[in-house]
């Protein structure tokens, strides 16, 4: 195994820094496949993900981690500064740093620390979509396409789950993601993108009857970083004909397998839904920016609403 700037040795100790769930899933699966020893500085959803996958984790402070490790492997966050500060530490300590980009949006935001763009030695991306975006934004950084180990595992899990769970008893699985807080922190305006997670969810329920299939059961699955009870208000949309429950009690794979359709804004779970062969809709309202996920399989609720409005103009 090699990095663009150094060899990966079997005796290497990798310094792992993760906060958000997406990056933590990819990085943890890569570590399981590599078999390398690691120490880590984890926070947020990443901590639970690593505890679930590894019997023992050595979770330490950022400064100790940089000193103990041979090189750094980080996830990326557009809300937390943890990985950004790790990059700054690595530059100061002259440690080689790699950041794994697990998504397709908000790339620059993931590297702005203390008002300045701070980039690692190397970026890992997981498909050609991400490679094109990253090379255009960061022409001076080594960029490598890796075969996404998390999606590899997802595909295996899907194959097993399809054989075990054949009932699609959920019409729509709505997958949530935190949007409002990031917009407020970065732009000083919760509605900078034209929508929040709450307005997108309201838009979905207000127009659910326009979808080209019957919907009688919806599960709303909170994001791993969401506080308990954040979406309890959606139960007010419940009627005799529409059953609504809050999900997250089962694994994402299980809830996707049981669903006919996956709806969200720009969630990674929508991409998992594509792998599972599900119908996928983005619920970003008409007044919001367009969905930036590059996958052609994603339909938009806004386009259905626009066609309806045009019909009656």
Work out the number of β strands.
14
Assess the beta-strand content as a share of residues. 15-25%
Give the biggest beta sheet. 6 strands, parallel
Unreliable spans are: none
Q: Supply the number of helical segments.
A: 11
Number of structural units classed as domains = 2
What's the SSE pattern? EHEHHEHEEEEHEHEHHEEHEHEEH
Radius of gyration: 20 Å
CATH topology group of the largest domain: Rossmann fold
Question: Helical percent range?
Answer: 25-40%
Shape: globular
C-alpha end-to-end distance: 60 Å
Strand order of the largest sheet: 2-1-3-4-7-8
CATH hierarchy class name of the largest domain: Alpha Beta
Overall average pLDDT: 91
Name the CATH architecture of the largest domain: 3-Layer(aba) Sandwich
Secondary structure class reads alpha/beta
Descriptive terms for the model:
313 residues; 36% helix; 6-stranded parallel β-sheet; single chain; Rossmann fold; alpha/beta
Descriptive account of the structure:
With 313 residues, the chain is of the alpha/beta class. It has 2 domains: 13-147, Glycogen Phosphorylase B (Rossmann fold); 153-312, Rossmann fold, CATH 3.40.50. The chain has 11 helices and 14 strands. The chain has helices spanning 21-34, 45-53, 62-68, 82-93, 128-137, 149-164, 180-187, 197-206, 252-257, 268-275, 301-312, and strands at residues 13-18, 37-42, 71-74, 97-100, 112-113, 116-117, 122-125, 142-145, 170-175, 217-221, 243-246, 259-264, 279-282, 299-300. The strands form 3 sheets. The protein has a 6-stranded parallel beta sheet with strand order 2-1-3-4-7-8, sandwiched between helices. A 6-stranded parallel beta sheet has the order 11-10-9-12-13-14. β3 (71-74), α4 and β4 (97-100) form a beta-alpha-beta unit. α1 runs parallel beside α2. It is globular, with a radius of gyration of 20 Å.
């Amino acid at each position: 195994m090699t990095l663009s700037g150094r060899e990966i040795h079997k005796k290497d100790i990798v310094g792992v820094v993760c906060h958000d769930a997406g990056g933590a899933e990819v990085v943890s699966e890569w570590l399981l496949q590599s078999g390398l020893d690691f120490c880590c500085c984890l926070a947020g959803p990443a901590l639970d993900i690593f505890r679930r996958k590894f019997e023992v984790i050595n979770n330490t402070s950022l400064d100790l981690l940089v000193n103990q490790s041979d090189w750094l492997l980080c996830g990326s966050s557009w809300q937390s500064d943890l990985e950004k500060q790790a990059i700054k530490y690595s530059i100061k300590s002259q440690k080689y740093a790699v950041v794994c980009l697990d998504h397709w949006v908000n790339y620059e935001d993931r590297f702005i620390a203390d008002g300045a763009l701070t980039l690692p030695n190397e970026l890992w991306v997981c498909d050609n979509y991400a490679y094109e975006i990253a090379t255009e934004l960061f022409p001076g950084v080594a960029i490598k396409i890796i075969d996404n180990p998390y999606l590899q595992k997802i595909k295996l899990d899907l194959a097993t789950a399809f054989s075990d769970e054949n009932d699609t008893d959920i019409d729509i699985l709505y997958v949530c993601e935190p949007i409002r807080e990031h917009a407020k922190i970065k732009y000083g305006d919760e509605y900078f993108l034209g929508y929040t997670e709450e307005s997108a969810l309201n838009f979905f329920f207000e127009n659910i009857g326009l979808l080209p299939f019957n919907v009688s059961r919806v599960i709303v699955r909170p994001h791993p970083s969401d506080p308990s009870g954040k979406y309890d208000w959606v139960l007010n949309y419940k009627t005799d004909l529409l059953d609504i429950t809050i999900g997250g009690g089962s694994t994402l794979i299980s809830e996707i397998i049981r669903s006919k359709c996956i709806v969200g804004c720009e969630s990674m779970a929508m991409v998992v839904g594509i792998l599972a062969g599900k119908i996928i809709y983005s619920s970003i309202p008409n007044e919001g920016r367009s969905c930036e996920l590059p996958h052609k399989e994603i339909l938009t609720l806004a386009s259905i609403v626009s066609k309806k409005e045009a019909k009656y103009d």
